Amino acid sequence: MPRLHYLIRSAQPHLQIFPAQHSSNDPRNQYDGNNNANNTDGPRGRSRYSFGRNAALDTFLFTIQGLALFIVIREHVLDIKWISGASMSPYLNKGYNIDNIDSEMVLVDVTYATKLHLERGMVVVFPSLRGSSSRTEPSKLSVKRIIALPGDIVTTRPPKSGEGGQKTQIVPWNHVWVEGDATDPDLSFDSNTYGPISMGLIKGQVMCVLRPKWRTLKWWEWENENDPVESGGDYGKSQRIRVRKDAVTVYDPNIN
Question: Which Pfam families match (predicted)?
Answer without folding.
Answer: Peptidase_S26
